[in-house]
Amino acid sequence: MSARFEELDWRPTPMGDISLRRRRDPATGSDIFEVKLGDEFLMSSLFTAGEAALARLGLAQLPEDGLDIVVGGLGLGHTAETVLKEARVRSLTVVEALGEVIEWHERHLVPLGPRLTADPRCRLVAGDFFSLAQSADGLDPDLPGRRFHAVLLDVDHSPSHVLHPSHAPFYQPQGLRQLAERLHPGGVFALWSDDPPEESFNSALAEVFAESASHVVTFGNPLHGGTSSNTVYVARTSAHAPEP
After folding, report:
1. How confident is the model at residue 241 (pLDDT cuts 50, 70, 90)?
2. What residues contact 14, with CB distance under 8 A and at least 6 apart?
3. Torsions phi, psi for 24 (to 5 deg)
4. 53, 141, 152, 236: which could form a disulfide with 217 (CB 3.0–4.6 Å)?
């Protein structure tokens, strides 16, 4: 294996074969980390603006301190890292369906692994975010019924381009209502999407949440020299919703 390319890990999973690769960028000499599921690229350390914006836009809606946050989808850790840069965050629970991805961070195979695993506020939980969101116990298996100030989700490509058919009901009003019940009054749900804003999903958010908006995040694309964009949806529950 040359220093220019290395497959750091490869595992079969229920969702398909997942692999972690490192390659050397000949132009900059820096290492680029990539994750593939089967033949499909899931993420790359070349493109992290959307993941960071997911955290920034979501937390910007919360004025208070002592924030308890959930991130759905660990990936290479850029959303979680951005959350932990915020001193107002008291706790971060990262829910990741693939234990292999959590192991990459615990073994420090990815650059942000040491940062996330060393922060006492951060807990990496192996679990299916969508199943937990719909369960009676909620998003924290250790504390049934726990509520959060924000839930930041980055798992599927978009609300209409999901990695597994079982995820699709979550993006409908009933699924979003179940998620909203996991939030404190005035709590935030934010979602990363690789597609442009979808009118149907904006309508679903507006049906469930007191406030909602879609933000287009534009960033430079070093692969072709132009720009690319993601969408971050941000929705907020009513500040006067009653606690259970």
Report:
1. low
2. none
3. -90, 125
4. 53
